[in-house]
Amino acid sequence: MLFYNGEIITADAQNTVATAMVIKKNKIVYIGDAAGAEFFNCKEIVDLQGRSVVPGFCDAHCHVVLAGVQGRKPLSAINAVSLRELLEALQKEAMHVPKGEWIQAEGYNQEQFTPAKHPTRWDIDQVVPDHPVMLVHVSGHLAVYNTKALELCGFFESQDDFPQAFIEYENGKLTGLFRETAHFRMMQRANFEYPDSEVLNSIQKVTGILKSYGITMVHDAGAYGGPIYRALQKAEQRGQLDVCFYPMFFSCYGKEAQIKTAQTAIENGYFTGFGTENLKMGCLKIMIDGSSSAGTCATREPLAHNHKTYPLSFEREEIDKVVLNGHKAGFQITAHAIGDQAVEAMLDAYEKAQEQYPRKDARHRIEHCMITQPDLIMRIKKLGIIPVANPLFIHQWGQLYQKYFGSRSDYVFPMQSYLKAGIPVAVGSDFPAGKTLSPFESIAAMMDREVLNHAEDLSVLQAIRCYTYN
Hints:
The chain is α/β, with parallel strands linked by helices and about 475 residues long. It contains 16 helices and 18 strands. The strands form four sheets. Strands 1, 2, 3, 4 and 5 form a five-stranded mixed sheet that branches. The chain has a five-stranded mixed sheet with strand order 7-8-9-11-10, with helices on both faces.
């Protein structure tokens, strides 16, 4: 099959743009001009009429299965622009849910409200007193639980394992807002379970969306652990994975669950890369700090808007141990690390692991790797680490980053600096925290950083390479 008379964007090291391409048995066998393609004597010919062909996109960080499962829920808070509108939506939803059953809503953003305040459990209690409610912030890193939910999860009887630093109180009273580890503890107690059939349907649904955008591979950043991997294997067995999946070993239920997930993967004797062309075992992942949009990430200096410094979710020794054990076992390792303190902690751990057990081409990663100053970029290059950026967030929350990080916002996703240093930065949407799976919106965000530092803008060819080859 011949494609000619267009722009064949190869995304190779030289950013070569050819005019013709030949495909044989589902493989690209020729890139060049139309004259060179005559050798193949193609029976099927496509005149591109000046249009472009790009490589299949790879979303290097998204929560595909999680998004599919969440998408089955009838209520989404994502479009509420006021507290009143949000509460009305919750009240309406409660009319269709049997009394006592959970109501889950994802995606509210208090920055859209006036004043920009989080809801409280008392707000929710007024409109939904008879259902447990979990109202999750757009970042996924915090949630508001109403009184019924707190009672059902036994919070009032037992809270020894909840870090008080991540629970909000107002005048000494619990508001229902749980951040980071405290939120994930609540999720674990709520014990949401999804049947394999639901997860399989979710995979098929979201896979269709991926294909429509030209995404041919996803690095799924994980969610609920075992049930997700089982469903992906079933989908592969049934020939339902039309997109290549690279799932990370990760549990969203907090630090202990993530350590256990990593230990189990290591003890089972497998390591990164095992599998088929459509489904390959990915990296071990931990989440060592908070959120950028919620302003809870671990920074080296206090945040600009509240002069607070939030702690890492793991102790440094715990990070070092997980990284060392996974590295030694042959896994690619990665971590959710947004603040510069978190990025530094991962670089320290990778450096220690390589000193003890040198390993070529380990390709360890840092997910988000958001606030990255020049000293950190130098270390990333030296250690051969792959940052996985989410430039789509710049268009979603750029002004918020200026508010939270001040002058450090110049170092948010420093894409051009990565490329100049020879670092193969990859790109992910982080959907559903990112508003869309569309690669084109992420490419636009790489080309025009809007309110942030334009010295880090990329050309269209550079941006495509980040979303494909890198």
